[in-house]
Specification:
Largest sheet: 2 strands, antiparallel
Radius of gyration: 24 Å
Structural class: mainly alpha
């Protein structure tokens, strides 16, 4: 673990204006002490990242995160804390639930296929597949050929 002051404040000073050399050194000898230090320091991340969700070249997403424990660095927790990622994960979970429901009931498969091939939702599905990339288009084409 590398700790440091990455706040872009003046050299030798913390964002609160105090001199870095006047700050106390924290000694961590047990795991629970590390968690307390994390809560006390409250490290934060405030950045803009390229928007890979919509595929718009110049669009960026603002990401603001607080890290109160080491668990906050886990990808699952990051997904929960970034709204656009949380929405994508929820959509994925709903699609998986729909897929599982379709496996158990052949009538649901027919209803889903009818919905996906309807004009109203077919364009939406085609648009989504186009944004997801060629690997998804290839997979959906091979599934259509099997039927």
């Amino acid at each position: 673990l590398v700790a440091g002051d990455y706040t872009k404040s003046k050299p030798g000073r913390h964002k609160d204006g105090k001199r870095l050399k006047d700050r106390r050194v924290r000694v961590i000898s047990r795991k629970d002490e590390f968690s307390q230090v994390m809560r006390d320091l409250n490290p934060q991340l405030n950045i803009f990242v390229p928007d890979k969700v919509t595929g718009e070249a110049d669009k960026q997403i603002q990401v603001d995160m607080d890290f109160k424990s080491m668990k906050d660095f886990h990808p699952d927790q990051i997904t929960e804390n970034v709204p656009v990622l949380r929405k994508l994960l929820n959509a994925r979970e709903q699609l998986n639930a729909l897929k599982l429901a379709a496996i158990d009931d052949p009538d649901k498969v027919d209803a889903i296929n009818a919905l996906l091939t309807s004009k109203q939702y077919g364009d939406l599905v085609d648009g989504l597949l186009g944004k997801l990339g060629p690997s998804v288009d290839d997979a959906s084409a091979s599934q259509k050929e099997e039927k």
